[in-house]
Amino acid sequence: MYTDQLKRIEQLKKENNAIILAHNYQPPEIQDAADIIGDSLELAVKAREVTEDTIVLCGVRFMAETAKVLNPEKTVILPAADAGCPLADFLTPEMVREARLAHPGAAVVLYVNSDTAAKAEADIVCTSANAVDVVRSLKETTILFGPDSNLADYVASQVPEKEIIPLPKGGHCYVHALFTCDDVIAAAEQGCMTICHPECRREVRRGADVVASTGGMVKMAQNADSWMLLTEKGIAYRLEKLYPEKTFLVREDAVCADMKKITLDLLERSLITGEYAVQLPTDLMDRARVPIERMMALRRK
Ligand code: 13P
Ligand code: SF4
What we know:
The chain has helices at 2-15, 28-33, 40-49, 61-70, 93-102, 116-119, 131-137, 149-158, 181-189, 202-207, 214-220, 235-242, 264-273, 282-300, and strands at residues 18-23, 36-38, 54-58, 75-77, 107-111, 124-126, 142-146, 163-166, 193-196, 210-211, 226-230, 247-249.
């Protein structure tokens, strides 16, 4: 049944000249169906490189919209229309405009986990994989950074020569906010190395052995035999497939409900109906593309 459905999806992909990109937090069956799995930066980069006419983005809305902004001529499909990111909802474009007025001369750096309309107000976009490099690359010494205040705090710790102002104060991911020092202590008691996402709180980041994006976690995993992953539990499936001899522990309650909205049925349906194709006004995409492309250009330097 399961393998039959994967075969049908494979066939539909061919018929539609489509490719499936999936985030590291996607459910196991979606990872099995995907052509490419990665973190936000890797997915954005791949979205620009692929030659297929249609990109099916198995992740959340900001990821599909970023792929669309980078490929306005392609069809980009998000199989679950309501897969959002509550962290992105912390920041509106009006808030960015107001903050600019209050801090003239500051650069606005927005995490890719933000709405396209907010990105259109930014000077440059970043992901968790490159936030530190992006901020270091700027000539401005005052940085308005949103919407994740934990990532802002992480960047501040790595780039102490700059003033990082979180925009807004308190923006956070509810999944990563779950973790506390107790998780770090529990990992140590079990003899595991700890790797945490920079969206975790300061005390967790300070206690962890490694701080990394989900793509960074995939790269770092080879360096130890057992890991406690302080991030969304979906990444464990990817790591267990890549490194079957290693142990990966997660918190069973560390679940992003939006990431789990994509199901195999919705994925198959999306390839049949074309739903839900991302549609954004051309002028908005043109404005949002500028700060995203600025980030992409840094990669090529
Ligand atoms: P990564 O870019 O590290 O995969 O993070 C995306 C995300 O949504 C983290 O919660
Ligand atoms: Fe957004 Fe957090 Fe889910 Fe990532 S894990 S998509 S930041 S809610």
